[in-house]
TrEMBL record:
<dbReference type="GO" id="GO:0019878">
    <property type="term" value="P:lysine biosynthetic process via aminoadipic acid"/>
</dbReference>
<dbReference type="Pfam" id="PF05222">
    <property type="entry name" value="AlaDh_PNT_N"/>
</dbReference>
<dbReference type="InterPro" id="IPR051168">
    <property type="entry name" value="AASS"/>
</dbReference>
<dbReference type="GO" id="GO:0005737">
    <property type="term" value="C:cytoplasm"/>
</dbReference>
<keyword id="KW-1133">Transmembrane helix</keyword>
<feature type="domain" description="Alanine dehydrogenase/pyridine nucleotide transhydrogenase N-terminal">
    <location>
        <begin position="34"/>
        <end position="164"/>
    </location>
</feature>
<feature type="transmembrane region" description="Helical">
    <location>
        <begin position="160"/>
        <end position="179"/>
    </location>
</feature>
<keyword id="KW-0812">Transmembrane</keyword>
<protein>
    <submittedName>
        <fullName>Alpha-aminoadipic semialdehyde synthase, mitochondrial</fullName>
    </submittedName>
</protein>
<dbReference type="InterPro" id="IPR007886">
    <property type="entry name" value="AlaDH/PNT_N"/>
</dbReference>
<keyword id="KW-0560">Oxidoreductase</keyword>
<dbReference type="GO" id="GO:0004753">
    <property type="term" value="F:saccharopine dehydrogenase activity"/>
</dbReference>
<keyword id="KW-0472">Membrane</keyword>
């Protein structure tokens, strides 16, 4: 049903693309993909796919649902213009994609989720999420484990993921120092 394809040599990530041409009518294709809102961090603005990917998918007959978010790097109107449907309820989609781990109460049973789960190295903080994934019969596709024929990761953290991590660390430090009575620019 789905395969990963490299769009061009300058495109650094992979996108879902249907194997064959299907009619534009969504009801006849039966293919639905959801883009979930990122809520693991207040600073998270990344999106798993851009509006131009949505346009490619809808041309292939895939119905793309996007959860609304006022923090996403791309405005909702760009997704609408590309053919996405903006709605809170993404339960219709068998495949749900995101960037970061999903809060336990947001995990829908019997779905396929694609995101960085941060569980592959047995990160303790995310073990309850992994337990929930198993209990709810969820298929997890962890971007960290997508590799090519040479074992190289095909979806990787970019430069800005590192920058975002530093921002989170400095913000946390600023909050701690504020609690101790010190005022800093790290807020």
């Amino acid at each position: 049903m789905w395969r990963f394809t490299r769009e061009n040599k300058h495109f650094s990530s992979y996108v879902y693309k249907a194997r064959s041409r299907v009619p534009q009518r969504w009801k006849s294709s039966g293919k639905v993909l959801a883009v979930r809102r990122e809520d693991a961090s207040v600073w998270e603005r990344r999106a798993p796919i851009a509006p131009h990917h949505v346009k490619q998918l809808t041309k292939e007959g895939v119905k793309v649902l996007v959860q609304p978010s006022n923090r996403r790097a791309y405005p909702m109107q760009a997704y609408i213009s590309a053919g996405a449907i903006i709605q809170e309820d993404i339960s219709e989609a068998p495949v749900i994609i995101g960037v970061k781990q999903v809060p336990i109460d947001s995990l829908l049973p019997n779905k396929t989720y694609c995101f960085f789960s941060h569980t592959i190295k047995a990160q303790e903080a995310n073990m309850p999420m992994l337990d929930c994934i198993l209990e709810r019969n969820i298929r997890l596709i962890d971007y960290e484990k997508l590799v090519d024929s040479k074992g190289q990761r095909v979806v990787a953290f970019g430069k800005f993921a590192g920058v975002a991590g530093i921002i989170n660390i400095l913000h946390g430090l600023g909050l701690r120092l504020l609690a101790l009575g010190h005022h800093t620019p790290f807020m």
